[in-house]
Amino acid sequence: MTRLLERHSPGHDLRSANVPTQLVGPQAALVVQGPPAYGYMRVPCNILDDKVRLLEQDLRACAAAKGFCFVAFFYEFACGSQEAFNELVAELRRVHAHYVFVPTLRHLARNMLLQNMMLARLELDAAAEVFTLGEIS
Fold first, then answer.
1. pLDDT tens per residue, the chain (137 residues)?
2. How far apart are CA 120 and CA 109, in angstroms?
3. DSSP character for 18?
4. Distance CA 91, CA 80 (A)
5. Nearest to 98 by CA among 74, 125, 129, 69
6. 74-78: which pairs have CB atoms within 8 A and are 24 or more residues apart?
7. Are 35 and 98 in contact (CB under 8 A)?
8. Would strands 69-76 and 129-136 be described as parallel, antiparallel, or unpaired?
9. Could you tell me the CA-to-CA distances from 66 to 9, 13, 63, 136 in Å, in that order?
10. pLDDT value at position 13?
11. Residue 98 in contact with residue 128, Cβ under 8 Å?
């Protein structure tokens, strides 16, 4: 199974990002440069920790491969809640970050209308671009 990164927002070019950010990793010699990026995931109570960890690793790897400096994940644990999403939007605005990685758009919402509303909010309130992991058979 190969993973493909898909972009979900018009009007932004990765090369036109703000001044590069640096993040020092757990190993003192590891420094990642690039525009800051955040992750967002819905984590239902019945999902295994290992699956969440794999999704985190996939999203971090894709962000790094695209030249981003991955900062943090925002997790939504309660069904129907948007508390973490609201915190994500506030953080994006606070640090002037414009990139969000999600496993699929269903992590925003299952309903397509709500997905579109959340994508629009990210774009309008934080000028954010959303990337998803798409699977290719």
1. 333 444 454 444 433 444 334 444 444 444 557 999 999 999 999 999 999 999 999 999 999 999 999 999 999 999 899 999 999 999 999 999 999 999 999 999 999 999 999 999 999 999 999 999 863 32
2. 13
3. S
4. 21
5. 129
6. 74/38, 74/39, 74/40, 74/41, 75/40, 75/41, 75/42, 75/43, 76/40, 76/41, 76/42, 76/43, 76/107, 77/43, 77/44, 77/45
7. yes
8. unpaired
9. 16, 12, 5, 18
10. 42
11. yes
Q: Which CATH architecture has domain 2-8+31-67+77-136?
A: 3-Layer(aba) Sandwich (3.40)
Local structure of residue 103 (DSSP, 8 states):
S
What is the model's pLDDT at position 31? 54
Largest interatomic CA distance in the chain:
45
Buried b (16+ CB within 10 A) or exposed e, 81-119: ebebbeebbebbeeeebbbbbbbebebbbeeeeebeebb
Q: How many residues does the chain have?
A: 137
Which pair of tokens denotes residue 115? Answer: 């997905």
